[in-house]
Design a protein that fits this description.
The chain is an alpha/beta fold and 269 residues long. It has a single domain, classed as Rossmann fold (3-Layer(aba) Sandwich). It is built from ten helices and eight strands. The protein is globular. The relative contact order is 0.17.
């Protein structure tokens, strides 16, 4: 399999678009909301179909927002759903941003860097360039080793491991989250902070429990992931699906890292 390392590897089928919209709500981060409230302008790299814009807009109705993505399909959909007003979506690469230096107060990358291969490091440097001095970069990236079921779902764990191994052959890193802080420092950012972000639900909250299971299932077992799982035993796939569909019991956790870095006030671009 060959994956364009700047294009979202799961594509933009109708099913995947729906999953992305629901995922944005499930993974809403109060810290990002706070940062949006304090900003006048925001760039989101890898904005996809614009799923994160509604929460940013609710946080700050005067926020000027630019969303960029390499997928023309995603950008067209984003403009049809969320475009207009103070939001604009356009086709562009995160590694060669079409914006002047010091153009934004806030640059956001939410579940994007993991899929970019080595290009994610270049994206950080481009983010630094377009931030004003004192501006902030925000990253929300996965850590699939932190996906936890108690009691265990062994077949689904096998799917996770197989998916990760297949993806890594194409430069995709499902455990990128804790690697971002060091690279931000190397890119010139200061005051870099990182936080573990668990998306957790006990069986006593069955609606949330099922929402997390559904998202995990659609991501790792959905039609868009078939290429990553083509060598896995079909019985394992069936058993993994059954484990996710079982009545809520124990707890489930999906895991991410949030990292924020500040552009130096005396930076010269």
């Amino acid at each position: 399999m060959s994956v364009d390392q700047e294009l979202y590897p799961l594509g933009h089928s109708a099913t995947e678009l729906g999953r992305l919209e629901l995922q944005a709500k499930l993974f809403e981060d109060p810290l990002l909301i706070h940062l949006a409230q304090e900003a006048e302008s925001c760039l989101e790299i890898g904005s996809g179909i614009g799923s994160n814009w509604p929460s940013l807009q609710r946080a700050n109705s005067t926020l000027r927002y630019e969303g960029i993505d390499l997928s023309e399909t995603a950008v067209t959909k984003a403009n049809s759903i969320h475009g207009g007003g103070r939001a604009n979506f356009s086709v562009a690469s995160a590694t060669s941003l079409p914006f002047r230096p010091c153009a934004f107060d806030l640059v956001v990358s939410k579940l994007v860097l993991w899929s970019m291969g080595p290009a994610w490091k270049t994206a950080l440097r481009e983010a630094y360039r377009v931030l004003r001095p004192g501006g902030l970069f925000y990253a929300f990236e996965p850590y699939d080793q932190g996906v936890v079921f108690e009691p265990a779902r062994p077949a689904f764990r096998e799917v996770l491991e197989h998916w990760g191994q297949a993806a890594s052959l194409n430069g995709i890193d499902l455990c990128l989250g804790p690697k971002v802080p060091e690279e931000l420092i190397l890119a010139g950012f200061k005051n870099v902070q990182t936080f573990f972000f668990p998306v957790l639900a006990p069986a006593s909250d069955p609606e949330r429990f099922q929402a997390i299971c559904d998202n995990l299932g659609k991501f790792y077992l959905g039609e868009s992931s078939r290429e990553f799982l083509k060598d896995l035993n079909p019985r394992t796939l069936l058993k993994a699906s059954e484990e996710l569909l079982a009545a809520p019991h124990g707890l489930v956790m999906d895991a991410f890292f949030v990292t924020v870095g500040e552009k130096c006030l005396d930076s010269v671009d």
